[in-house]
Amino acid sequence: MAVFYLLNKLISSILGKNKKISLKQKTIINFALKIVTVLVIVFFVIEGFPLISQNGLNPYTAVLTGAISTAIAFASSGVFANFISGIVLMLIRPFEVEDLVKIEGDKGIVREINLTKLKLETFDNIIIEKSNSQVLSSKIVNYTIKLGKRKSFEEFKNKILAPQDIGFKDIYENALDSKIEFENNLKKAFESFSTKYYPKLYNYTFRMAFPYKSFRVMMNKVAEICDLYNQKNIFRIKPQFDVVDFNISIIVKFRLLTFSPQKIFDFQPKFAKDVYNIIYKYKDM
Q1: What is the pLDDT of residue 176?
Q2: Which segments in the chain show pLDDT lower than 70?
Q3: In the prediction, which pLDDT does 15 show?
Q4: Which residues contact 209 (CB under 8 A, 6 or more apart)?
Q5: Measured between alpha carbons, how far is 144 from 22 in angstroms, rounded to an integer?
Q6: Angle of the 58-75 helix axis to the 23-47 helix axis, nearest 10
Q7: Among 14, 131, 156, 158, which residue's CB has the most CB atoms within a 10 Å radius?
Q8: How far apart are the first and last CA of the chain?
Q9: Are 192 and 253 in contact (CB under 8 A)?
Q10: What order of strands is seen across the sheet that includes strand 200-210?
């Protein structure tokens, strides 16, 4: 166990210093090495440690290994469940390290995935650890889009937009202009980026409730905020918004498109606060 522990540490250290290997490949190698380590140790526990047999302690081998096996079974039932869940997560791969995700209502960037748990850094710069079994049974929303090789603009756009993203844009007058502008912004992004340097696009969405009173005035002010962020080139593409639901209030969904998850971390809270200030200012007018 000591040898395998040191071996894991050594290989992890070598991989960490190697810049030619991608983060995704490093995660897979580390994960595979840990699986092999666990399987070998479990084999020794079940079959009997060779050192014990060689020293002529065969009568006690079955009792000792049986006791160890029972102890491990009781002590690591949860660990084993997380271990199996970790293997399933690696096979289905709903997300990777550095992906922007939402798991059980916690939004953030996946910083680490290991044999039994993952680490998620939230927008409040808090590191949350979630067990693999907990993650596997949770609803996962991945805001990360793997772009792959560029083929056509339509394929690129279909990766970003889903059928439910159509919304009800015709509620305000400049809906057509807004739609055309969004198409143009997507074309600029499609033509300007290289998948070699930008293999992923982060398509982050969030919703805010608006009162019916002074709604058009608020939308005009929100459009000005989006223009301001676009002029400063804070995100790669101008922030977009759509009306998606009507109830006791009007629900507006905002979309932030960028090639860096850190941009979402740094500027989404400020953008949401700017929008909230507009709601608070004009709600009683």
Answers
A1: 46
A2: 1, 5, 15-17, 19-28, 30-31, 38, 41-80, 148-151, 161-179, 192-197
A3: 67
A4: 249, 250, 251, 252
A5: 17
A6: 140
A7: 156
A8: 70
A9: no
A10: 144-146, 200-210, 250-258, 240-246
Would you say 110 and 118 are in contact if contact means Cβ atoms under 8 Å apart? yes
Residue type, 270: K
Q: Which residue has the tokens 């740094």?
A: 266
Q: Which amino acid is at 233?
A: N
What are the beta bridge partners of residue 130?
Answer: 118
Residue with tokens 């080139």: 233
pTM for the full predicted model: 0.65
Contacts of 126-130 with CB under 8 Å at 24 or more apart are 130/103, 130/104, 130/106
Residue that the structure tokens 């502008």 belong to: 181
Place of tokens 């059928």: 163
**Alpha carbon distance 110, 51 (integer Å):** 42
DSSP strand pairing (140-142 vs 100-103): antiparallel
- CA–CA distance from 146 to each of 62, 77, 159, 221, 258 (Å)? 52, 36, 9, 33, 13
Instruction: Report the chain's C-alpha Rg in angstroms.
Output: 26
Task: Report the alpha-carbon distance of residue 272 to residue 54 in Å, rounded.
Answer: 68
Q: Distance (Å, rounded) from C-alpha 131 to C-alpha 276?
A: 35
Domains and CATH numbers, the chain: 2-75 (no CATH), 100-142 (2.30.30), 145-282 (no CATH)
Residue 149: strand, helix, or coil = coil
Question: Which of 133, 142, 107 is closest to 121 using CA atoms?
Answer: 107
Six-digit token string for 72: 């491990």
Asked whether the beta carbons of 135 and 150 are under 8 A apart, the reply is no
